Fold:
Amino acid sequence: MRKWKVGIVGLRRGQGFVSVFAAHPRVEVVGLCDLDAESLSGLGAAFGLPDSTLFTGFDEFVQAPMDIVIVATPIRCHAEQTIKSLESGKHVLCEQTAAYTLGECERIVEAVKRTGLTYMMAENYCYFHYIRQWHELTRQGKLGAIFYAEAEYVHEIEDLLIDGATGAYHWRHERPPIWYCAHCLGPLLTLMEDRIVQACGSHAGFHKHPEQRDHLGFLDAEVGLFRTRKGALIKILRSQVAPRYPHLIYYSLYGERGYVENGRFGGGDTDGQVWIEGETPDDANGHRAAAPMHCALSDPDAPEEAYHGGHGTSEYYMIRDFLDAVESGSRPPIDVMRAMDFTVPGIVAHDSAMGDGNWRDVPLFDW
Structure:
């Protein structure tokens, strides 16, 4: 069995990828790249990599002999590093979000088409165990046609926006909340097997941090409404500063024959509920009642190596799908077009939120 040679750029987030790839029998980590020489050296030593495979410059790194580049750098770097990797003959697994602007998104799509190489966006929330369970429900039509869905991702990360001791801004200070929408839209659109065609948005202002009005990452919250090609409505809420502990990642879907939702309490595994017409029994009084459903991040039947990454077992299955696509030459589940389905609506919704709040068309990219 061939081992794929993998290089990883961006080690703060990429450290988890190094761990899961290093434990994977189908790959070999052959290169690391990061601006922080100390972190680079430490992680390289931890995984037994020689100094010749450690790089502080991306342009030198991307020319090294490898098959795959994992892009785990700040989002503003994603488009340039993705395109350079593809043009250097490497397949790409890129962290979400794919890019910050419609122009960058278009350039990524063109580069994938031009090179014919495999690109996948690493939207790991689509691989939560309970999302994969729900997908079986929706594939089988258990909920009927889904007409409404919502998601909330409220995660207070002020320490990742600004250094409390020095006042220095970290890279996320420039990221409006709804630009980082793939953790919300990715699972929903996967479950619904749908695409977004229109978006509008609104924001709550800077009540918590009025002094940070020039830094959009400090917006109290942004809400996006989205119309899908199948005629469904989606609502998402995003905040990076709202005081919500533990952080919230919440999904619900409503269909003609039932609904499903995870719990609103707990930062990982939660207890949600499901109701399916004709299947969920009534309560003791003969009234309709949802059945409890445990929503676990991790697959209890996953192999031991699946736990070397983060976010439960999600990254193991995500990487497995990516490698399968590279080996077969097929499109991965979150290929470049699907990556844009998860990314572009947030860009358009933010434009609406900062403007008149009206509906705007969302461009669709196709092969």
About this structure: The chain has two domains: 4-123+315-334, 126-303+342-361. The CA atoms of residues 1 and 26 lie 7 Å apart. Residues 126-303+342-361 form a domain with the Dihydrodipicolinate Reductase; domain 2 fold (CATH 3.30.360.10).
